[in-house]
Amino acid sequence: MGFASGLLLPQLLPLRPSAPLHLIFALGIMPLIMGAMTYFVPVLTRTRTAEPRALAPALLALAAGLLLSFSLFFSFSLYPLAALLGLVAAGWLSLWILQRKRQTLGRPHPGLLWYQLALLALIGGLLAILAAFFLPEQWGPLRRLHLHLNLLGFVGLTALGTLRVLLPTTGGYSDPDAGPWLMQQWPWMVAGTLLIAAGAAWSPAAALLGVLLWLLPLARLLKSLLVTHRSTVWRSHGAVTSLAGAVLGLLVILLSGAAHAEGWLPPTNTTHAFIPLFLLPLVSGAATHLLPLWLSTSNKQREQSLRSRLGRYSAVRATLFLLGGLFILAGQGWGLVPVLLALAQFLVTVLLSLRPNY
C-alpha cells in the first residue's frame, strides 16, 4: 500500500515534494522493518518466537503512518502527533530487543547491534522533526537531518545488517567474512551516517566525509558480490539477485548524495530515486525469500515452490528498478514506467501465491 500510494498519488494529486517518500516510508517501510525485526530478533538472540503482543510496535508505526498521511493531505500541523506515535513505537521495540538480548544464550549475533543502532537513528530523526515544529527558523536544516537519519540511519543500517546475513543465505554460499564485517564496520557506518545527516543540515564538507566513511565498508561488501561470489550471486532468478541489486542501488544513492552536496544534482531527484534504486529491489528480494517461509507453515516442498515462483525473472525486475531509478535520478519522469512494470509483475506474482492451490 505504501509503495503504490507513494509512487502513484503524486501523479494524480498536488502534493508536497517530500510526500511520496513520506508515504512510502510511513505506510510501508517503517511498519515493515519493525515487523521484520520482531521476526529476526528471536533468531539473532536464540530465544523463543516472538509473542503476538511483540507486533504492537509495528502496528503502532502503521497508525503513525496513517496519521502522517492524513496530515499530508488535510492538516500538516498534525504531523507532530504522528512523530510522537513513531517515537513510542521505536522506544517500545528498542526495549523489547534489549529484553531479548538479556535472555540470549551466549552472545547475541552481531546483527542485533545494527538493529539497535537503526532504531536509535529513527528516534533521532523523529526528535529532529519534532524540534523543527518548535523551532520554525531551523525547519530546513532539521528536516534534512530528519530525512538522512531516517533513510541512511534507520533504513540503511537495518538493511545492511540484515543483508550481510541474508545474501549468503539466499545465494546458498558460505561467507565467513559476514560476522567480522558486522562487528568491525558498524562504527564507520554510524559515524558516516551522523556526518552525512549533520552535513546535509549544516555543512556539505562534513557530508562528503560521511559519504567516504560509508563507501569504505560498502566497497568490501561489493567486492564479495562482484568478485568473490560473482557466479553465485548474479543469476536470472532468485532472491539473491534482487538483494545484490539493492546494494548496487545504494552505492548509486551515496554517490548522488555527494553530487547533491556539491550542487550538481537537485535533492528531490536523489530522494525520489532512493525508492526504485534501493527500497524496491531490497523489499522484493527479501519478500521472495521470507514470504514462502511465512506462508508454507513448515511445508518445505511448498516453501521451495513458492520461492521459485516469486524469484522468477528477478534479474529482469532488478534491472528495471535500477534503470528506472537512474532515469529518475537524471530528472526523467518517464523513468517511473519501468519501475511500475517491475513492481506490478512482482505484486501480481505475490497475489497469485496467496491462493491456496497456487
Automatic annotation (TrEMBL):
Keyword Phosphoprotein carried by entry: no
Domain of life: Bacteria
TM annotation in the entry: 21-42, 54-74, 81-98, 113-135, 187-216, 237-261, 273-294, 314-330, 336-354
Descriptive protein name: NnrS family protein
Record carries keyword Metal-binding: no
UniProt keyword list: Membrane, Transmembrane, Transmembrane helix
